[in-house]
Amino acid sequence: MKKFKTELLIIGAGPSGLGAAIYAARAALDFFVVEKFIAGGQIVVTEFIENYPGFKDDVSGFDLMQSIIEHCKKFNINIHESQSIESMEILRSGRKSKCKFVCRGQDIEVVAGSIIIATGASPRRLYVEGENEFIGNGISFCATCDGALYRDKEVMVIGGGDTAIQEAMFLVKFASKVYIVHRRDELRAVKSLQAKAFAQPKIEFLFDSVVDRFTGGNKLEEVTIKNVKTNEKTVKKIDGVFEYVGIKPNSDFLKGFLKMDEWGFIITDEKMSTSVSGIFAAGDVRVTPLRQVITAVSDGAVAATFADKYLDDLD
After folding, report:
1. Parallel, antiparallel, or unpaired for β 240-243 and 108-117?
2. Among 61, 112, 191, 234, which has the minimal tally of Cβ within 10 Å of its Cβ?
């Protein structure tokens, strides 16, 4: 097992983690960044972002994150990819204020004076009949990754938020028809995205509807849709489904260690401080009224600033 000691451990290298890393570097902190997968986070699979300051033209999530990663290289920030943290404990000394945190993964142990949790969130599932069977075989969570597989075919997007509508607009480049299934009678996406979707002739909306089950043989073939007001069920032949029904925080390894809301999002104050002194949380993993790249980066900057102050106060 590899063992490290550092002032600050940043767990996650998405927008919030990298924002924290840049501010930690500017504060001349000794810090360590670990990322379970690869640097960039979930946003790298988003086809376009139209509201990030400084980019007057749409920019892909991948290109935006590459720019931020290049910015990190300016500060010689080293990101340890394919390293997950699975448990955490407090290592107390004689004085409570001098405690350390021991973070362990499968083949790594990091002892840190402060921690920033920037692990983000993952797509939620529908948990309906047939879903498990067809994930990766007709059901996807990433139109950017798999959209080209459905050229001239009929696909279905589940959800009505910003991501669902953005991905539906991407899918019309390939698919002959895109159905958008939403359990309410109106979309939750911002008005500018709604306007684009309503103007797209390839898109058909199925409001007040939910997925009842997925069926098929070796691959997904049909989706049964139920109207939540009439309970009427309709079977549609579909080549592919893309699910965008919310997110689940990547915080399971911290349950019982930090205070969270009923969904598992970490509770913080305006300084990004959690219920444990010295541990901060930033980005999509925390309770926040808005989950966007711009707010995640901002969270990271705030978390690193107050982690630095916390460490200074221990001296």
Report:
1. unpaired
2. 191
